[in-house]
Every structure is written in C-alpha cells, then in structure tokens.
Amino acid sequence: MATSPMLETNHASVTTDSAAGESSATTPELLVWLAGQPGEASALTVSALEAAFAGSSIVVISPEPAPSPLPPGMRWGVRHTLAPQGAWVLTATDFAEAAHAARDYDAPYALLLGSHGPWATPGALRKLADTSGDRPVDLVTPRPMPGEEQGLVNAALLYPLTRALFAADVHYPLPTDALLSRRLLERLGTVAHRSASAANDAMLWPVSEAAVAGCHIREVTLEGYTLPHPPESTFNELFTAVAASLFADIETKASYWQRARIFAPTGAAGIPSAQAGIPHPPPTSAVEVSPEVLELIDNFRLAYKSLQELWSLLLPPQTLLALKRLSLAPPESFSVAPQVWARIVYDFALAYRLRTLNRGHLLGAFTPLYMAWVASHARAAEVDPASAAQMMTETAQAFELERGYVVARWRWPDRFNP
Amino acid sequence: MGQQIGSALRQSMHRVVLVLANFLPGIAAFLLAVVFFTLIGWGLSVLLRRVLVSVRFDERLASRQPINTNASVADWSPSHSPTLLASRFVFWGCVLIGVAVGLSAFDASYSANSTISIFLLPYVTHITGAVLIVLAGSILARFLARSVLIGAVNAQMQYARFLSLGVKWLVLVLAGAMALDHLQVGGHIVELAFGILFGGIVLTLALAIGLGSRDLVTRSIERNIDRPFVAKPTESQPLTEPEPARSKLRHF
C-alpha cells in the first residue's frame, strides 16, 4: 500500500493512500466521486464498482477510508472535504472538488455518485458510465423507468423549464448521480468555485451548463433507479432554495436562451393555442375528491384570499383572472391549465430577476401556486392515472409554447401584458 | 390713541423687516452652500462614472461576484450597475455636505439673535429625525407584515391576514410613538397612549391566535389521549413505533 503526499486544493485535501494492482502514476480511465455516502452504503457501492469496472483502472475518491483489501485496478483517495455531509443533491463543493481531483489524476471522465440507493448495481453503473457512441458524450444522467414515481417539483418546474429554455430533454436536470467529461467538469468546477465561495451547499445545474457549452448530453434509463428523499418537513425551505437557484441560473444564462434558436415546440399539436390563457373548466368527474386533495385546494383558496395583493404585483391580469376562476372552481373540476402554469412560472422568474418583491417574499408567494398545481395533478391522478402522466407531458409542452412569452417579457418587462 | 396704534404697528413692521433682513443672509448662505456642493458633487460623479466605465468596473465586479448569492452589490444598485451606485453615492454625499455647511452658515448668521437659532435649528433636526423614523417604521412594517403573511399562509394558518395586519400596526404604532417622542410632542400622553395601543394589539393578537388555534390544540390533545397504550418493550417483543400516515405526494 503506497502513500502519496497530500494534494492540497482550494476546498479540500485528497490523500491518495491506497493503490492496488498497478502504479499510482497510471492515468485512470475513470474517477469515481462518492459524495458523503455513509459507511455501509459506501461499502456496497465499492463492491458494485469492483464488479462493474473489473479490469479497468479507476480511482475512487471518498470521505471514507479505503476498504481492505482494495480490489485490483482500483486506487483510493480519501478526501477531507468541506462539502456538507448528507446533502440530497450534488453541491457546488462536490463539483469543485471533483474537478480538482480529476485534474490531479488526469482522469478523462468522472462519475459522481451522490445518492446511496440500492440502484447502484454493476449493470446500472456500467450503463451510466458507458460513453460509447457516435459523438463523445459530456454528460450522462440517470432516470428511473417510465411510470415510476418522480418528484413533483421536477415535473412541474425543473424539467419543463430546462426543456423549454435550454432545449435539453433531460428529465432530471438536478441529478444526484452523473457521469461528466473532464471538459464539462472543468467548466462546472469554475462555476462551482464561484458558487461555493458563497455557500458550500449551493446547487449547480449541470444540464443547463452543458447545454450552454454545446456539450453532448445523454440520459439513460436505469431499472430500479431511485432518487433520494429529502425530509418533507423541510419542504418550504427546500422548495424556495431549489426555485431560487433555478431562477438565478436562468437569469445568468439569459443571453443564451433568449437568442433565436433552431427549436420547434414539440407539443404544438397536443394542446390548445397559447391564446387560451383562461382554461375551459374541465368536465366534472364523479370520482370522489380525496381529503388530501381537498386540503390542498382549501389551502390554495386561503392563499388566494391572503396573497392576491402580492400576486397582482407579479402576474398579469389574465393570469389573475384564471387564478380567481380556479379559486371558485368546485374541487371535482379543480385544474390548473398547463399554459397558465407556464406563464405563472415565467412571470415569477422574471420578477425574481427584476426584484419586483423581496426575493424571499417572492419565493414564499410562489409556493402556494405550486401547491395548486400539485392539487390539480393529484386530482387528475385520482380521476385517471393516465391523464396525470399526460398532464406532465402537456405541462412541458406548454412551457415550450410559451417560450416566446417569457422572451418578450424578459426583454420588455414594462410593456402592457394582458 | 390713533398715534399710539400707528406707532405700535410701525414698530412691529420694523421688527419684522429687521428679522427678515437678518434671516435672508442666512437663507442665501444656506442656498449658496447647497448649490455649490451640488455642482461639485455632480462634477465628481460624472468624473467618477467616466473613470469606472473606462476601467469596466461593473464587468470586473460581476466576474468576481459569487453566483447564486442572494445579495450582491449589483442587486442594491440602480439598474444593477455598481458604477451608477458609486457615482450617485458621491453626488448625494456632496449634497449632504452642502446641507451641513449651509446649516452651519445659517446658524452663524444668527449669532447675534440666538433666540431664533436656539428654537429653530434643533426643531428642524428633530423634524428630520422624526420623518426618518416614520419612514423606516413604515418600510419595516410593510416588510414584516409581508413576511408574516407569507409564512402564515404557507403554514396553512386561517388567520394569516389578521396576523399580518396586527404585526403591521404594531410596528406602525411603535414608529409613530417614537416619532412623537422625538418631536417632544404630547409628553406622557404619548407614552400612555402607546402603552394602551400596543398592549391592546398584542392582547387582541394573542386572543385571536389562542381562539383560532383552539381546534388545533384540541385535536392534538385528543390524538395524544386516543393513542393506544403501548406496552414496555421486552427482549422478545421490541418496541416498534407505529408508522405515521405518509402523504402519497412526493415533491422531491
């Protein structure tokens, strides 16, 4: 077991204390970054890595000490990180430190593993790290099998916005696990260095960054892939943190997504025209409304009564009228039209940029509207689970259709809006 | 009699004209100082803006600014331009210096007649202070009222608006009382009225929250009482906490 000197970085130090089967000077084929996995999960992941990359030269960087004996072909680096432990997504510090480690080891690819679910089988890891193809891949993100449950924030906000503004059809733009090329990782490392100087747990958006850099992105479907569950008790804080980070990212990359681009809305045939901002009420279903959905609808009505004044500072009259109708709608036909939702999100992103309200207040006022979308989705799922899946697709398509709206408002925010 | 009235009027007119004659040089000195320093401030701000634009100050600052931060220098600046912020800071700084110099000149011109100076100048400063207190109070009241409203709505409190209104008036009453106290108007009446009003609002809020949360507390107590008795854990039967009902909705 050889021990190399400690490599000091800006954020953390990495001690290469273990190498097996080969010289530590050999360039590894892959760098694996284990972001704060607990001991037991780390051991399981290591055995899966051993089986997945048998015969390959890999370097594993982990906060845990090296297992003994170390599998052949595997080198182990212990990092003394500043990254927050137990973060539910990869943070800016993770990216910054991984970029530094990839540079130190001269690794062409880095596999960042943030979650510690049972999905990390040898087959899944191999599939995630597979970079073969016509074009060199810069980013590979995993997604669960279609039909498996996905986060509602992702379906309502993250995926549609990333798809519409960055033309990246990646279902999980805030991945907890990803394979990145050295080129993209270097770029993210630079961005992360700036973000991490503000907060160690700042979020980064690798998909939008890859889209701006013209990188090739691939999404792989992994059987049994699960996303980490952050505690629901901290929902308000988490939601505002994610939305703030996303809006800030959109603001930073405005010059990119505002340019006229070769991008055709994919769902133009599926949903009515954007002029139909005020939706026709959906047919009332005979299926009974569950207490959970009723509670969500009641909460939206309370928010409508209380926050009207604030919303009127941010939203145009047509959207306010749609919200008024929604507050009066019976629970059986409670539905937020995809176009209305898309415009609401775009208007809040714009208000975030313009600081129409204090940003904390703005994101707080956004939360009840998201909960209204959740109520609408939950109601659709009660009536017909297939229509709920359809609603998610229509939401993403509506964001693409309304892209012109946000571009116009972003450029001329003071112009009259119907 | 008529002569005496005429004489009294003439003397009165003479005194007023004398006061005005004393007053005008002070005003003129004040205005001159303000105009002079404003012009200096304008010149300096233009010069500073040109220098900062030529060295690309905004771009340099933006490139060093950490992203994803909620508060940056640009965010506090008009049109998100730190250059503009710096030039305006210099301009208004000079104007303030001009006002200070002008007030000093105004004061100096009254050295002969200290009665007016003693009463007028401190009162002007008190009025300025009181206006600032009221302004700060109303901004703070609005901010806190919105914070409470949004927090209460997201916590699904039915009395969110009432709570927000209560907080707003608490801060406004406090600011109003402070301003009156600063102006030395009303004396003990203001303190008494403030105490009554403030206490009244706090009591009203406490009652409203207490009565509004009655059902919530009742449900919480009932839930605890109705919980089935759980035997002490033994080696053969370890204690297992019943799983709380989980929502089917998954946000993340």
Number of strands of chain A: 9
Most strands sheet of chain A: 9 strands, mixed
| Straight-line N-to-C gap of chain A | 70 Å
Mean pLDDT of chain A: 80
Return residue spans of chain A where pLDDT drops below 50 for at least 5 consecutive residues: 1-12, 264-281
Fraction of helical residues of chain A:
40-55%
Number of β-strand runs of chain B: 0
Strand order of the largest sheet of chain A: 1-2-5-4-3-6-8-7-9
Secondary-structure element order of chain A, N to C: EEEHEEHEHEHEHHEHHHHHHHH
The CATH level-2 architecture of the largest domain in chain A is identified as Alpha-Beta Complex
CATH fold descriptor of the largest domain in chain A: Spore Coat Polysaccharide Biosynthesis Protein SpsA, Chain A
Radius of gyration based on Cα positions of chain B: 32 Å
- Helical element count of chain B? 8
Q: Which class of the largest domain in chain A in CATH terms?
A: Alpha Beta
Percent of residues in β-strands of chain B? under 5%
Query: Mind telling me the C-alpha Rg of chain A?
Result: 23 Å
Gross geometry of chain A: globular
